[in-house]
């Protein structure tokens, strides 16, 4: 399973026309991804069959939100769900970087049957084993992780352990610097089957079709 992170409409269209199994659609690459424009999302849903998972994140920075920002997140889920979102990607932490069970639970409830991914806020939590058990209990279908490190290559030992212990209960989506030059090694070492990449090559701004095809071929 190959998910392509798309931070603007051009990359999203490239990924939808290429071999991505699904896309994670968001805005603001420099902030690590925020909630995208609703009308651009509708354009993708109307013109392509590729599943679109929507990032629900009102701002960059820490994954701790004010009451007003949390309300924004709830409203975004309602709006994008009505628009036909295939999945949601979000993650709320407490001020001491633990999983905020109450708030994440509320968003999962609002999402209903729409599957939810807990994004890389997971990697900031102090105890990944405890955190992943909390996510499973809350009902997340997927967790995006680099094994608590800056990149998936650096976190591959932890990823291998998480996959061995929990992959039958939650999809472990390997992300963080995943590219065609390392995806084979990551797959072989960790035993992972789900990968997340921006498919943006060095010095490029947009997703490239060629990189998506290579990623897909090497991860299959």
Automatic annotation (TrEMBL):
Domain of life the protein comes from: Bacteria
Entry keyword annotation includes Transferase: no
GO MF annotation list: copper ion binding
Protein name: PF03932 family protein CutC
Gene that produces this protein: cutC
GO cellular component, one term: cytoplasm
Compartment(s) where it occurs, according to its Swiss-Prot or TrEMBL record: Cytoplasm
PANTHER family per the UniProt record, alphabetical: COPPER HOMEOSTASIS PROTEIN CUTC (PTHR12598), COPPER HOMEOSTASIS PROTEIN CUTC HOMOLOG (PTHR12598:SF0)
